[in-house]
Amino acid sequence: MAQLFHPSREDITLAGVLAALADPMRLRIVKSLMQQNDCMSCTEAAPCPGMAKSTLSNHFRILREAGLIQTSKKGVEHRNVVREADLNARFPKLLKTILGYAE
Amino acid sequence: MAQLFHPSREDITLAGVLAALADPMRLRIVKSLMQQNDCMSCTEAAPCPGMAKSTLSNHFRILREAGLIQTSKKGVEHRNVVREADLNARFPKLLKTILGYAE
């Protein structure tokens, strides 16, 4: 499997974070990941049960490549967690403010 | 001239605002408009002097259609102002938090 790309903390940009969150489905995914203590598989964090796997993977890829989430492989699954420490270091309160308005 | 489209306050969405601001040039335009007391023409608010007029118009259109700015016609010019009251009513502190991190 190809290595998953994650930007380093200092490569996370404001415009990139906003673009990644500029979609109701991705806002829901991040909100749902934040509400968990543990990391979640893509399917668990899916905003709606019937969503196609390819659509879901694409949303997770966009979030990952913008630095919003960290994805790790556990067996056959991808486990995801929000990069809260990195995001709060770069843009304190930004994520909390945005997610406060997400449905 | 065709009427310029502006969404009503209640039609301004979080994802729409984030998408409109998910671009370094548009972040600069909004920041520069916020720093003025008066409204500005598109050229005055341009993030870089050499930017093509069509590129600039496109950025202003995206901002206007997402509810970020109000554009009015004054003679041959378009005058622009940030819809602070509407944005703060819909998403208190969101704009301030985001612009605080814009260059």
E-strand count of chain A: 3
What is the CATH fold-level name of chain A?
Answer: Arc Repressor Mutant, subunit A
Percent helix among the residues of chain A? Answer: 40-55%
Largest sheet of chain A: 3 strands, antiparallel
CATH architecture of chain A: Orthogonal Bundle
How are the strands of the largest sheet of chain A arranged? Answer: 1-3-2
> What is the assigned CATH homologous superfamily of chain A?
Winged helix-like DNA-binding domain superfamily/Winged helix DNA-binding domain
Taken together, the total number of domains of chain A comes to 1
Please report the two chains with the greatest interface, counting residues with C-beta closer than 8 angstroms to the partner's C-beta: A-B, 17 and 17 residues
Q: Give the mean pLDDT of chain A.
A: 90
Count the helices of chain A. How many? Answer: 5
Structural class of chain A: alpha+beta
Rg from Cα of chain A: 13 Å
Q: Tell me what portion of residues of chain A adopts beta-strand conformation.
A: 5-15%
**N-to-C series of helices and strands of chain A:** HHEHEEHH
Protein name (chains A, B): ArsR family transcriptional regulator
Pfam families (chains A, B): HTH_20
Organism (chains A, B): Bradyrhizobium oligotrophicum S58
Keywords (chains A, B): DNA-binding, Transcription, Transcription regulation
